[in-house]
Amino acid sequence: MLARLRAGDESAFSEVVSRYQGVLMRLAIAFHPNRAFAEEVVQDTWTAVVDGLPSFKGHSSLKTWICRILTNRAKTRLAREGRSVPLSALQNSDSDEPAVDETRFLLNGSWAQLPQSFDDRSPERQLMRKEAIGCLQSALERLPLNQRAVVTLRDVEGLESEEVCNILDIGETNQRVLLHRGRSKLRQALEEHLIGA
Amino acid sequence: MLRCNEFTKVVTDYLEGCLPLSERVDIFLHLRSCPACRGYLGQMNATRAHLRELAAPSPPRAVRDALRAYFRRGRCARGEIGPAASAAGGCRLDVNR
Q1: B3 contacts in A (CB within 8 Å)?
Q2: Which of A78, A88, A147, B22 has the most CB atoms within 10 Å of its CB?
Q3: Which of A151-155, B16-20, B91-95 has the lowest mean pLDDT?
Q4: Mean pLDDT of A29-58
Q5: Could you tell me the end-to-end alpha-carbon distance of chain A, in angstroms, rounded to an integer?
Q6: What is the pLDDT of residues A127-148, one digit of tens each?
Q7: Nearest-5° angle of CA A115, CA B30, CA A98?
Q8: How far apart are the C-alpha atoms of A83 and A17, rounded to whole Å?
Q9: Are B57 and A25 an interchain contact pair (Cβ–Cβ within 8 Å)?
Q10: Mind listing the pLDDT tens digit for each residue in A12-34?
Q11: How far, in Å, CA of A12 to CA of A7, rounded?
Q12: How far off is chain B from A83, nearest CA to CA, in Å?
């Protein structure tokens, strides 16, 4: 693919745009949930990709390289607007926030009530899936930026954790802490929505 | 002996496969005897599975065409192709939306 791009193969470029536009849009939205912002940052990224192709060394995958460009563009833009972009877990105030509310457990640490399955509740599974997706979409938007970015790349896009670290320029442990906090909150949102706990 | 509330704290480390063997064994044994934590793990897995289904916004046609033209002009500016192949000239991205 890279060779075709460097040779100026337009259809290869179109293919790359189609393949990565989705991840770029979602990552941009993770940085700032605003469609106009995301579209601008993504376009910025693509032009930077075209300009940077001749000097891209291929040390990382094309996808990682493109996503890193987006991360840098988004950070620059947000900084220009006076917003800080705290990607480290340490910069978050919720460091000792539990994955599950303490009141769900008995004093000995066992569950007070059984966590129920999300899938067998409704006879209309299709409807439930739609509801779950809608609920997750809005819960994702409510996560702090750093958790949202990690969950988006790791769980929505299914990237390897190493790629996620590389794109966001954060450490492995940091990434896992953010993923844990983000996922735990999304699980809770789904539980409240589907089961009404 | 692992307790349920402790399991919820390490569930991501467990799913990400980065716990030492001894802790994985503890969790395995706990899960075997604890339907509540199996339920919790099921909820975490269902959450991950639903996250994978969040819709992908596909690029609007105008954006794809504009990018393609930009790609062509970039090559033109570097002298890789003649100006005849360049659309509007100048390295700007034109998106008509």
Answers
A1: 108-110
A2: A147
A3: B91-95
A4: 91
A5: 49
A6: 778 888 899 999 999 999 999 9
A7: 50
A8: 29
A9: yes
A10: 999 999 899 999 999 999 999 88
A11: 10
A12: 26
Residues 19-58 of B with CB under 8 A from A: 35-37, 39-40, 42-44, 46-48, 50-58
| Identity of residue B59 | P
pTM of the model: 0.84
Instruction: Please give the share of chain A, as a percent, with pLDDT higher than 70.
Output: 92
Q: Enumerate the residues of chain A whose CB falls inside 8 A of the CB of residue B80.
A: 8
Q: Is the dihedral of CA B26, B30, B36, B40 positive or negative?
A: positive
Is residue A166 within 8 Å of A60, Cβ to Cβ? Answer: yes
* Min Cα separation A172/chain B (Å): 10
A111 phi/psi in degrees, rounded to 5: -65, 135
Tell me, what's the pLDDT at A3? 86
A118 to chain B: which residues are within 8 Å by CB? 42-43, 46-47
| CA angle centred on A59, ends A154 and B59, rounded to 5° | 50
Interface residue of A16, A21, A42, A106 to substitute, partner B, most B CBs within 10 Å = A21
Q: Using the Cα atoms of residue A98, residue A104, residue A106 and residue A107 in order, give the sign of their dihedral.
A: positive
Average pLDDT over residues B29-52: 95
Cβ-in-10-Å burial (0-12, 13-18, 19+) of A141 comes to: exposed
**What per-residue confidence (pLDDT) applies to B93?**
58
